Amino acid sequence: RQHIPEWWDNHIILEVSAHTKSHFEKAQKDIENIIGNKDIVKCTVDNVHEYAAIPAYYTEDYCVFYVQNGKVVSLISKQYNFEKWGIKNIKENTVKFHNSDPVLAHRNCPINDCHYIYKGKLYKCGTIVGAQGLIEKYNVDKKSAKLWKRYKPLEHSQSDIEEQVQMISTTPVAQCRLCPTNPKTHKIKDTDIKKITQGYKKDN
After folding, report:
1. Cβ atoms of residues 126 and 83 within 8 Å
2. Pairing of strands 94-97, 87-91
């Protein structure tokens, strides 16, 4: 959290998707604690246009905005649906991932330019972030787990950080092969989700 202002300085906008009322309130509190005495204005859908020029979808998807010098640096949404990301299925007590063409998987991915900051570092997508915790708690096929672990997130202090962020927004990474090539038709079974979320723990 301490490095968020540095991400802002590098023109990285912090977007938070709040899934519950308490999460929504906590997100506002956390961002405002980070802001401190910085000259940042808190806005709503009703008045954000007075402080910043924003794309139309911002007011469709988000309801709280933080603006600095005419630019949004952070924003919060309510009640986004969770993505049913890369997991293919669970067989033989092991979480299985896809083995796709990474270029095609990236091209069809709805979140290929939606990056995540996790433990102070920036990751290409939420799938890669989620995989970090998944491989610690559950049995994941060894080949996939090895590929997830190989991912190198970006640091806020990198001299070419803006160029790197632009590159990961448009370029597939090796880990893209673990996701489906057509997310619209990809349907992981509810029974498999329950295995993951209701006590299906990693073997010791």
Report:
1. yes
2. antiparallel
Residue for token digits 């673990």? Answer: 178
Closest to 91 measured CA to CA, from 16, 141, 150:
141
Contact 121, 165 (CB under 8 A): no
In angstroms, rounded to a whole number, what is the distance separating the alpha carbons of residues 100 and 64?
38
18 in Cβ contact with 79 (< 8 Å): yes
| Residues β-bridged to residue 95 | 90, 140
Residue recorded with tokens 């309510």 = 78
SS3 label, residue 92: coil
Q: Which DSSP symbol is given to 32?
A: H
Mean pLDDT by 10 residues, the chain (204 residues): 79 86 92 88 96 91 94 86 71 89 93 88 92 90 96 92 92 95 68 58 51
Q: pTM here?
A: 0.75
Distance CA 102, CA 177 (A): 4
